[in-house]
Design a protein that fits this description.
The chain has 394 residues and is an alpha+beta fold. Helix content is 34%, strand content 22%.
């Protein structure tokens, strides 16, 4: 299939959409930082996606973001993304041609053009690459994603829990090997096959996945998720410039943008790490736990966090304070920069912040698919609000 690049303005004009947001370098920097914070310790190195997006903009290509409720029901969308071990991604970043190839192969399999990109998650890599791919293809990016956080497995999205599917997914490596995965409505099988392809490729792959129609994007996505990330990133960067408390500014942004309360629950330093980097046994996931020793007002207290690429579970002095799908972020207390599971070290100091998951992630099906029991915890899900309201440190 030969693609004719017309540019996102021409696409939006054809749809009759006159309102959009222009994504320039400051905007994508803010969005990427906000997405990295919402990525709950995962999401990979944001510089990889950010630099690619800068390159697209430097080439004079335009990136436009559109409100999901303005898109036509019949358009074809898809999500370009990275899948695999974050540590491998850092060591083996791709050429932009790899993800473009995945998108073209998905179009060929669908026998129709992809008319907009949808970020799969709020992640340091996977948020900006959706913008870069939109710029490369001359199409808009839609203000949605499938999580409003990052999760380790392909099927852990609001899309699946609301009845749409990851198949077909096209997986590509840096040598341009291509795997087409079509598992129908079995999204766990699609994840298994995509994960095995990534491991066969050397631990990392680039995918074009979740080919949703416009009507499904509206019905099943986390609407406005990119705007949420943008507002958070903008607030934290402003705090740096004006020497404000970045955690306080982040929490204020959440209340303004989402109308939810986040919780600042612990400040400490990492004193113990157990971590396995993306082995075959672990299917490429970075697994483990850390212990943080309290400092300042939390001196004498201890926090333990488990992770599978992303932070999953928080206990403070042995008491559970957060469970999936709610969000855990460890932020540098001075800059608001997130501390990722793949780069953390002994002695790192940070503030633990907890954020309620979006309501579309808290459905009964969502709790079944990515709640605490899916990750092996013998615990019923309790919303983060119930675990932290009127608690010391919250």
């Amino acid at each position: 299939m030969t693609r004719r690049v017309r540019g996102p303005r021409a696409v939006l004009e054809e749809w009759g959409v006159g309102e959009f947001r222009v994504i320039d370098k400051p905007a994508i920097q803010e969005i990427t930082l906000g997405a990295s914070i919402l990525a709950t310790g995962g999401g990979g190195d944001p510089e990889i996606g950010l630099l690619w997006t800068y390159k697209v903009l430097d080439e004079g290509k335009e990136i436009l973001m559109v409100d999901p409720m303005q898109i036509p029901d019949e358009i074809q969308t898809a999500s370009p993304a990275c899948l695999g071990a974050a540590i491998v991604l850092t060591e083996k970043p791709p050429s932009h041609t790899v993800l473009n190839l995945a998108m073209r192969k998905l179009e060929a399999y669908l026998e129709r053009p992809i008319q907009a990109t949808i970020p799969i998650e709020c992640g340091g890599v996977n948020s900006p690459v959706a913008y870069a791919a939109a710029g490369e293809f001359g199409i808009p990016v839609i203000d949605v994603d499938g999580m409003n956080r990052a999760f380790p497995e392909l099927q852990m999205t609001s899309w699946v829990t609301h009845g749409v599917h990851a198949s077909p997914t096209v997986s590509v490596d840096d040598r341009h090997n291509v795997t087409v995965i079509d598992a129908g409505d079995d999204d766990v099988l699609a994840e298994t096959l995509a994960r095995r392809a990534a491991m066969a490729y050397g631990g990392i792959s680039w995918v074009a996945t979740y080919p949703l129609m416009g009507s499904d994007v509206k019905r099943t996505s986390i609407l406005g998720s990119q705007s949420i990330a943008w507002a958070i990133g903008r607030a934290v960067l402003r705090a740096r410039r004006e020497h404000l408390d970045p955690v306080a500014e982040l929490l204020r942004s959440l209340e303004t943008e989402r109308g939810v309360r986040g919780y600042r629950v612990f400040r400490g330093k990492i004193v113990d790490i157990r971590r396995d980097f993306g082995s075959e046994t672990n299917k490429g996931f970075t697994l483990g736990s850390i212990v943080m020793e309290g400092i300042d007002r939390d001196r004498g207290r201890s926090a333990t966090l488990d992770f599978q690429n992303e932070w999953l579970n928080l206990r403070i002095d042995g008491e559970v304070r957060c469970l999936p799908p709610d969000l855990i972020a460890i932020l540098d207390s001075e800059t608001g920069e997130p501390i990722r599971t793949d780069i953390m070290k002994y002695g790192y100091r940070g503030t633990i912040v907890l954020i309620p998951a979006h309501e579309r992630m808290r459905t009964p099906k969502g709790i079944e698919m990515f709640g605490p029991r899916h990750f092996g915890y013998d615990l019923d899900y309790v919303p983060v609000e119930g675990l932290n309201e009127n608690r010391e440190g919250a």
